[in-house]
Amino acid sequence: MSSAKPKVYVLLLRQDDPKKCTSVKLAKFRLATPLYRMGRVPRRSLVLNPAAPRILLPGDRRLAEEYGLVAVDCSWERAQEVFARRLPGLGRRLPVLLAGNPVNYAKPHKLSSAEALAAALYVIGFRQRAVELLSIFKWGEGFLALNREPLESYMSVKDEDEMIVAEGQFF
Predict the structure, then answer these.
(1) Does 26 fall in a domain?
(2) Domain assignment of residue 1, yes or no
(3) CA–CA separation, 84 vs 87, rounded Å?
(4) In degrees rounded to 5, what are phi and psi of residue 170?
(5) Tens digit of pLDDT for each residue in 76-113?
(6) Percent of the chain scoring above 90 in pLDDT
(7) Sign, Cα dihedral of 128, 134, 135, 140
(8) Residues 6 or more apart whose Cβ sits within 8 Å of residue 110
(9) Does the residue 29 lie in any domain?
(10) For residue 17, is pLDDT > 80?
(11) Which residue has the higher pLDDT, 157 or 13?
(12) Domain range holding 41?
């Protein structure tokens, strides 16, 4: 198995205050590559999309290593409109997790872009990279602590059926 770190991208749709935007901060600290147009999303990258029919699985690791992982940064108020569009890349939704950010603390499915990327990295086996991404946020460690058990469980599933069972154990 390859040990290449997946390239991490953030598609910045500029719908939020840049001072509060986790994706902008990831790009500023060079922890993610910013993309400003959908056409720039690598064609076979894994795009985190809460409306995707397929769930992210540990087996997606190879695709992430080869083509990258993308978070679409948009306002939660406009998320339904954004994710209803045909997005480039291979859409994957995250398993259920609780937000650790102060705006949506402990709400399921309301992750910031940084939390979504870190969760995806954790699930596909890049735990240390997930910690690195969240280290620039005061609440980053709290997100991992809040979701430690589900994340550890999600890392070991083999297929979507097992992931659904694992989600049900926690939520």
Answers:
(1) yes
(2) no
(3) 8
(4) -110, -30
(5) 566 566 656 777 889 999 999 999 999 999 999 999 99
(6) 74
(7) negative
(8) 76, 99, 104
(9) yes
(10) no
(11) 157
(12) 8-170
The end-to-end CA distance of the chain, in Å, is 32
pLDDT > 70: what percent of the chain? 89
What DSSP assignment string belongs to the chain?
Answer: ---PPPPEEEEE---S-TTT-HHHHHHHTTSSEEE-SGGGS-TTSEEE-TT-SSBP-GGGHHHHHHH-EEEEE--GGGHHHHHHS--SSEEEBPPP-B--SSSSTT-BT---HHHHHHHHHHHTT-HHHHHHHHTTSTTHHHHHHHHHHHHHHHTT--SHHHHHHHHHHH-
Residue 2 lies in a domain: no
The pLDDT assigned to 1 comes to 43
CA-to-CA distance for 61 and 79, rounded, in angstroms?
26
Q: 90-92 and 69-73: which strand pairing? A: unpaired
d(CA 125, CA 122): 5
Both tokens of residue 19? Answer: 């001072």
Q: For the residues 62-87, what does the mean pLDDT come to?
A: 79
Number of structural domains, the chain?
1
